[in-house]
Amino acid sequence: MTITDRLRKRATVVAVAAGGIAVAGAIASSGLALPASATSAAATAPAAGSATTAYNFRTLDNAKDLTFNQLLGINNKGLIAGYFGSGALNHPNKGYQLTPNGSYTSENFPGSAQTQVTGLNDQGATVGFWSTMNNASQVNDNHGWWSPDGRHFFTADYPTSAPASPPVDQLLGINNHDFAVGFYTDASGNNHGYYYDARDNKFGLITAPASLNSPSLTATAVNTRADIAGVYTDAAGNTDGFIKFFSGGFTTLRFPGATSTQALGVNDSDEVVGFYMDGTGSSATTHGFTWTPTGGFRSVDDPNGIGMTTINGVNNAGDIVGFYTDGAGNVDGFKAAPVTSKVTLRFGLTPMPQGQLVVGAGTVSLSEYGFTPGSSHEVVVKFLGIQIPVGTLTANSGGSASWSFSLSMADAALRQAEAHAGVHPATSNPAIQVAILNAGQGTPVIAETPAITGLGRYPVHGVEPGYGVIKAGNATLVYNPAAGTISVTVNATGLTPGAHAAHIHVGSCQQQGAVAYMLMDFTANSHGVISNETRTVTGVKAVELSGGWYLNLHQGNSNNILNSAGQPTIFFRPLECANI
Question: Which class does domain 27-329 fall in?
Answer without folding.
Answer: mainly beta
